[in-house]
Write a structure and sequence with these properties.
This protein is of the alpha+beta class and 242 residues long. Helix content is 29%, strand content 21%. It is built from eight helices and nine strands. The protein has a six-stranded antiparallel β-sheet with strand order 1-7-4-9-3-2. A three-stranded antiparallel β-sheet has the order 6-5-8. α3 packs antiparallel against α4 (62-75). The longest helix is centred in the N-terminal third of the chain and has 14 residues, at 62-75.
Amino acid sequence: FDKMFSKFIINVKHAKDYIKKFHEDGFVKIKPDISKEIEIINQNLELEANQKDPPFAFKINDEINNAIEKILYVKMKNYFFDLENYFNSEIHPAVVHLKKNTYYKKVDENHENYSDNYHNDAYTLTHFKIFFNLMDVDENKGPMHIISKKNTKSFLNQINYKDRNNYNHSFSEEKLCYSNVGNKSDVLIFNPTQCFHRATIPKEEKFRDYLTITFVCIPKNQKVKEKIMKNLSIYKYENNPL
């Protein structure tokens, strides 16, 4: 499906430079003017009750919802126009994650609290994510590490990858991976189906708050569209039709 979609549907010929970089690498950093909305989100962060292990989810109140809607439908409008031209499809937000990653003691490779082993997501390339930094992020705060599409072959050769719990962890990660460090309000467009990636674990007493929105391309068939958009809540992952 991905090969056919790339060959016949994706439109990269007249795309803007940042879209071409997204196409070539599988991710690209952008800097929309969303500092005000990020500040509103930060001012309203409150953890859900009764959570034992990270990642910890934050509550979504009206102020946060309004800030996210403004990011989506006002501040990011031109970027979404470019992405729809690239995918040659309508795109729609599918699910929102507003969370905190904190340190935890990893017992073995099968122990993953928040996808901190290298993997890629088991969807088609019509599923992508946008990460929003809610804070300044350095290596101590557990940034995401990404292997670009261009480095995938070298990565697989070096690590002898069998699956996410079985590979050589002693490869030269700093030479092959992109670390999503950066400033508050930085934004990363990322296709997790095309790139191996992992969340790193924050150092003790450090943490990373983040907003992630998953998007999917929507078929043009009206009946299909109505069916998959019916009763959709982008703040619920379980039983989400998208």
